[in-house]
Amino acid sequence: MLINRSDHESSMQSAQLMVPVTERDHSLGPANAPVTLVEYGDFECPHCRRAQPIMHGVRRYMGDNLRFVFRHFPLAEAHPHARHAAEVAEAAGAQGKFWEMHDILFQNQDALGDEDLIMYAARIGVDFQLAYQELAAGTYTKRVRDDFRGGVRSGVNGTPTFFINGSRFDGNWADANEFIQELNDAASQVHTAP
Known about the structure:
Structural class: alpha+beta
Number of strands: 5
Strand content: 5-15%
Low-confidence stretches: 2-14
Largest sheet: 5 strands, mixed
Radius of gyration: 16 Å
Oligomer: single chain
Shape: globular
């Protein structure tokens, strides 16, 4: 899903990740991996859902050569449930279950109402009453907003958007071979750097 390009013309020209990856981020893989892949995604975006099996395959193929990071970029005007889905993922993350919630949200993308979100929390073993209270209180609203703003600053104009070692990938993420080639190239550049 794309957002209005004219709102982000100035931020798109750099195509660099403006917010560095830190321990605050949700990541899979070693922190010292030669390749860091950052995805800005939206749990209600059908393109992001399509990207998930590709990302699973890429992570398996790259193994310890890849650290995968997911950041929120809910396009709330087009996807009215995306922001709350992101906040529930954060609530699950506070209980050590971010990736379980990440996966279940994409698997059930057509049912992301607040009641559904709380049911998914219970299903993966999250304290669903606490998650409900945090959702109602807006506990993670700022964190999700910070991810979104960082994406805008980095030139994200739709979802999913990927950054490989800090540079936006403008190729075809749906072509696993092209995507893996780009990741391998990034890894070899790190290995051959002086």
